[in-house]
Amino acid sequence: MSSDLDTDQPVMPEPEGPPDLPAVTPERVLAALALLVPIVAMLWVGSYDKLDPEAGGVPFFYWYQLLWVPVSAVFTVAAYLLINRDEKARRAARKAGGAR
Amino acid sequence: MNGVNVPALAVFVLFFALVTVMGFLASRWRRADNALHLDEWGLGGRSFGTWVTWFLLGGDLYTAYTFVAVPAAVYATGAAGFFAVPYTIVAYPLVFLFLPRLWSVSRVHGYVTPADFVRGRYGSKPLSLVVALTGILATMPYIALQLVGIQAVLDVLGVGGGENANWFVKDLPLFIAFGVLAAYTYSSGLRAPALIAFVKDALIYVVIIVAVIYIPIRLGGFGHIFDVAGEKFAAPKATGSLTVPENKQWTYATLALGSAMALFMYPHSVTGVLASKSRNTVRRNMAIMPAYSLMLGLLALLGFMAIAAGVGKGDKTFNTQLSVPQLFENMFPDWFTGVAFAAIGIGALVPAAIMSIAAANLFTRNVYKEYLKPDATPADETRVAKFVSLLVKVGALVFVLGMDKQAAINLQLLGGLWILQTFVAIVGGLFTRWFHHWALLAGWAAGMVYGTWKAYSIASPATKHFGGNSAEIPGIGEIGYIGLTAFVLNLLVSVALTLALRAAKAPESPDETRPADYGAESGDEEPRNAPEPVTAH
Predict the structure, then answer these.
(1) Per-residue DSSP letters for B355-386?
(2) What's the CA gap between A58 and B444, in Å, rounded?
(3) Would the CB atoms of A76 and B431 count as touching at under 8 Å?
(4) So what's the pLDDT on residue A4?
(5) Is B249 on the interface with A (CB under 8 A)?
């Protein structure tokens, strides 16, 4: 039924990194939130599906979504910085704990 | 159609010649020692840094068809066509979560395609095969549509010959363009589109920026443009509106989300990502890619400008795909029309090259090496991939010439829906090994059948089948994107069957990846248990 390869395969993935750094850190939570904000804002179509107020002759519907392009980039940059910090901390912890 | 626009054509040909030379010279760019390895031809040596990747991905994802079709949709339907903007806004935060993991595990194990990853993760040949075939199937019509983009500009330039011309004369420019493309892709691999992407993207940026400043000034400002568009949509029997009708909001949101999820399932997107040199390169790109989205949004507004400029007004048979090329020709001086058309034409070549490389990689790695010649050397793989890239392009050409354009558009629509059905296996697999590979196979099949059947049964005024991409979502009652509904079905089937199979103690298969592989960065000094790239598994 099974080869010797799969007998000791874990079904669930092990947590990454050494045990002293939990899978959930403030950096990771904040990064996830930062990524979630633009997604929610864009999928909530009812919040921007209207013509007024206009900006420079462009109806709200259009300029609002265009504005979200750079705003989403700012959130993604924030997530990038947070995750970078988190990974640095993990690397440092792994070094201190001795790599596997 | 009016006569040949000579100055525009001259500029167009000039740029075309420039990128052709660049395409052939690209094989010398950053050349590695082992040119026979598939990593070299098919992934540019996995060496691209942040900026090269940015240009490459931008050139790859924002295709000529996008540039023609998005404003065409806005021209025809107004707000509903604008969904491309939230789609690209949602895409990058979404893929930020999983693409770095895909990059890392692919680097550690030498994976070249998403199907390679599925093979390694689930130890399942059939699952890997369906992921590969779905990828090839979804990519082929996409390549064909790039030709539609080139055809649109050639038509407006007056060298397309119109509908009545002899088919050979009509399509000769297309043959030349694709012959040249095939030749330099064959010789230079991914380096050719990477280098040409610089020219393409620079041209596109210049054209769009000029267009959104110059055209509104000539048309009397944005206020006037939207007034005219509003009048057009308010007319009796007109389709479209300036905002999304309330009963279409779900459609708008689900199309944006579903398309965003599908975007990085496409093999050509994955090729662009895996060609980057580090995990952080991928992340940084997710933060700077929105520059292209901004451009796409401005481009979409050109659809309204075409309305305001009276393009196609009163012409019942007007091909909406020509709205933006025609707008450019009406508005710009001839020489700049040439620049704009060169941007669209070259904009077709870059993605077509990357798509054919991606399809060739899939065939070579997941069909040829897996089933036909398991002991293939890297040199064999490269040879086969180069040959297949030619076949794929010939196939796309035959497709466009042999079938009607509606068929290509239908199939591209289905392509997005199909490729989305690989999401559970790929993205699920990046985070957990919980899913059983049989369950994933069943989920994929359920999503494919449901989505295709639903799409088939939609009629529109233009076509009896495949007349749209949205239908009622069972259980919610709103109209939503079929692809996303099929994805949810796929996920539910995968979860339910996994639970059942686990309860029945169905046999497991080996997983060659380790948790640490998913976080690996280039230059990590961790010991690697993987064999040399490409000879893996």
Answers:
(1) HHHHHHHHHIIIIIIIII-TT--HHHHHHHHH
(2) 43
(3) no
(4) 40
(5) yes
Contacts of residue A65 in chain B, CB cutoff 8 Å? 82, 85-86, 89, 297
Q: Which ipTM was obtained for this model?
A: 0.84
User: Concatenated DSSP letters for B442-471?
Assistant: HHHHHHHHHHHHHHHT---SS-SSS--SEE
Contact B44, B196 (CB under 8 A): no
Please give the single-letter amino acid code of residue B335. W
Tokens of B232: 């057009």
Write phi, then psi, for B479 (nearest 5 degrees): -85, 125
Determine contact, residues B344/B149, Cβ cutoff 8 Å.
yes
Contacts of B251 (CB under 8 A, 6+ apart): B80, B244, B470, B478, B479, B480, B481
Q: A11: pLDDT confidence band, cut at 50, 70 and 90?
A: very low
The pLDDT tens digits of the residues spanning A22-59 come to: 878 888 899 999 999 999 999 998 888 888 888 888 89
> Which of A36, A28, A41 is closest to A81 using CA atoms?
A28
Q: Half-sphere exposure of residue B190, counting CA atoms within 13 Å on the CB side? A: 39
A81 pLDDT higher than 60: yes
Token pair belonging to B524: 């990590």
Separation of alpha carbons B171 and B484, rounded Å: 37
φ, ψ dihedrals at B307, nearest 5°: -65, -50
How far, in Å, are A35, B84, B479 from residue B253 at the CA level?
17, 10, 10
CA dihedral defined by B447, B425, A88, B282, rounded to 10 degrees?
Answer: -70
**Which two tokens mark B405?**
């354009």
Task: Write down the H helix ranges in A1-100.
Answer: 26-43, 60-97
Averaged pLDDT, A64-80: 93
Q: Give buried/exposed letters for B314-324 (b at 16+ CB in 10 A, else e).
A: eeeeeebbbbb
Structure tokens at B453: 């059947």
When pLDDT is cut at 50, 70 and 90, the band that residue A20 belongs to is: low
pLDDT at residue number B524 = 63
Give backbone dihedrals phi and psi of B481, rounded to 5 degrees, phi first. -65, 125
Q: Going by DSSP bridges, is the β-strand pair B479-481/B470-472 parallel, antiparallel, or unpaired?
A: antiparallel
CB of B90 within 8 Å of a chain A CB? The answer is yes
Q: Write the residue in B89, B284, B508 that is nearest to A69 by C-beta.
A: B89
Give the rounded distance of the alpha carbon of B522 from its chain centre.
27
State how far the Cα of B260 lies from the Cα of B416, in Å rounded to an integer. Answer: 10
**Cβ–Cβ below 8 Å for B92 and A65:** no
B107: tokens are 């680097």
Q: What pLDDT is attached to residue A3?
A: 41
Residues of chain B with confidence (pLDDT) below 70: 1-3, 30-35, 160-170, 403-408, 462, 523-537
Report the distance separating Cα A5 and Cα A45, nearest Å.
Answer: 50
Residue of B nearest to A54 (CA): B223
Contact B157, B7 (CB under 8 A): no
Residue B191 CA to residue B99 CA, distance in Å, equals 22
Read off the pLDDT band of A15 (50, 70, 90). Answer: very low
